[in-house]
User: Fold this.
Amino acid sequence: MRNNYTNSFILHNKWVLLGVVLVMLMGCGTTQTSRYYTLSSLTSSGDEMQVFRDAYRLSIEVGPVHLPKYLQRPQIITRLSPNKIETADFDRWAEPLEDNVLRVLVENLAHLLWDDHIAVFPWIGSTGVNYRISVNITRFDGQLGGDIFLMAGWAIYDRETNNILLERRSVLKEASGQPGYSAMVSAKSRALADLSREIANGIRSMD
Assistant:
């Protein structure tokens, strides 16, 4: 009788242990859903768009845009300290960040200057281009819930001679205002809008 009871107890424990293992395996097999973000451009309405509406229209080519290697990855980067960064496991860019920045710059400049004379580098159309704008971003990160920093050198070239007509460096800071990646991406979009305004002012100064 004792042996039957012991065997039954051992068998029961085996089934309990097997159930625990199955639950653990099911938990390990469930992965968290990734969230995807894109930078946003300036809206297509507002006073800023009126500045160059009646001006002589120049054609502008935007690009190339360069990002440092640490930003060329799908995961969103946060900076924990001057020498330490962290990649988000489930918060990612919906497209390569370099492409997203270029597209938003083109849309912003079209909004700030004129809406039909902005081309993406390299332009191979039949119409001529007057200026080319290159942007070299050296930092575009920050802390969750903290400040976002955008540091970039940019230059305006004569498209025909490839001579530099204007060269500047922009150092911009934007507060996230709220914790979370959505607020961080919104702050990055505002910083990129400020960079677009500085470039647009540079173009206006030459026209």
